[in-house]
Amino acid sequence: MSKKKITVVGAGNVGATTAQLLAYKKLGHICLVDVVEGLPQGKALDLMESAPLENFDSKVVGLNDYKETANSDIVIITAGLARKPGMTREDLRDKNAEIVKSACEQVIKYSPNCFMIVVTNPLDTMTWVAKKYTGLSKHRIVGMAGVLDSTRFRSFIAMELGVSMEDVHATVLGLHGEDMVPMPRLSSVAGIPITELLPQDKIDSMVERTKNGGAEIVQMLKTGSAYYAPASSVVNMVESIVLEKNRIVPCAAYMEGEYGIHGIFMGVPVLLNWSGVAKVVELELKPEELKALHSSADAVHKSVAALKV
Ligand code: TXD
User: Fold this and answer.
1) What is the biggest distance separating any 2 CA atoms in the chain, rounded to whole angstroms?
2) According to DSSP H, which parts of 49-83 are helical?
3) Which of 27, 71, 85, 192 is the most buried (most CB within 10 A)?
């Protein structure tokens, strides 16, 4: 098993499920941190008690402060409020910015060399807040959204065509919200573009469903938002880093001119490995795709400009 140390901040639905998958996949020792006393300790102990059956030797500890998280290799930020029906991700901005700021100030004191994955919404803005309050370089911090948005798109394509999920690839760029940019042209089944397999109206409706994928689940759950696919998405990224896979995955990376975007985090294909964000991959986009990406970027710029922290 990997001896990496992984801290998950926030022991709620996404954080606890992430910790569970990290342990089951033997990706490292885990610190689970939350402000609620007893919550991370209880979940960590419960997870440890599953170890004899799930056959893992990772240590999982629950904490209310950060001292024991010292020298974490990877830190995952899931702390914050989740959406309820009728709310947009942007409605969470001010409260979650305070939470992410305070968590990051603590994290970085003890793990100045960590690689950070931000999950809290509104994702692209919270990753910007986390960069500001950790001072991490653009290679050491990334936001998780594109993997989730594209796994949603992949699952819709596989269900529609009745083919194995394994054979379906999909790309989604842009921000994590209604202005995201699913890319049917770059989505395929066993290498065949979906534009050759499905009529345009079917593709359009799957694109819309992907954009509203989070809201669809919030509407059903009523008390919170999705967490199984989000946690799997985070762990997929951790695997790419810990196992040094050099995968190219869509994530929110800090832009310094790529695609003509500056100074914000934006969902783009990223080469992810042990060095972190090794590279932003610049695709040749069609004019209408670039326009959609830029309007996504405008929305993130507005959100960042409205921050109070
Ligand atoms: O694609 C994506 N990036 C996302 C993002 C997919 C799913 C969920 N997404 C967002 O993650 C969601 O909108 C929320 O902003 C976060 C966490 O969602 P989750 O569903 O896990 O929310 P919960 O179950 O309410 O858990 C949040 C926990 C809860 O236990 C709080 O006590 C804790 O965060 N919390 C804190 N922990 C540490 N430190 C501080 N300051 C803190 N404040 C709250």
Assistant:
1) 55
2) 51-54
3) 27
How many residues does this entry show for the chain? 309
| Residue 132 and residue 63 share a domain | yes
| CA 202 to centroid of ligand 1, rounded, Å | 33
- Ligand 1, CB within 6 Å, residue ranges: 9-15, 33-36, 39, 78-83, 92, 96, 99, 102-103, 119-121, 123, 144-145, 148, 176, 224-227, 230
Judge whether residue 1 has pLDDT over 90: no
Q: How far is CA 55 from the centre of its chain?
A: 27
What confidence tier does 2 reach under pLDDT thresholds 50, 70, 90? confident
pLDDT, tens digit (0-9, with 9 covering 90-100), for 212-254: 999 999 999 999 999 999 999 999 999 999 999 999 999 999 9
Using DSSP's 3-state secondary structure scheme, residue 297 falls into helix
* Identity of residue 148: L
Q: Both 158 and 248 in a single domain?
A: yes
CATH code, domain with 182:
3.90.110.10
For ligand 1, the distance from its centroid to the CA atom of residue 52, given in whole angstroms, is 29
Which amino acids are annotated catalytic? Answer: 176
77 and 195, same domain (yes or no): no
Q: Within this chain, do residues 66 and 209 fall inside the same structural domain, yes or no?
A: no
Which of 145, 165, 183 finishes a domain?
145
User: Distance between CA 241 and CA 221 in Å, rounded?
Assistant: 32
136 with 83, same domain: the answer is: yes
Residue 34 has pLDDT above 90, yes or no: yes
Q: Tokens in use for 287?
A: 């004019």
Of 128, 145, 162, the one marking the end of a domain is: 145
pLDDT exceeding 70 applies to what percent of the chain? Answer: 100
Task: Clarify whether residues 193 and 84 are in a common domain.
Answer: no
Average pLDDT, the chain: 97
How far apart are the CA of 176 and the centre of ligand 1, in A?
15
Indicate yes or no: pTM above 0.90. Answer: yes
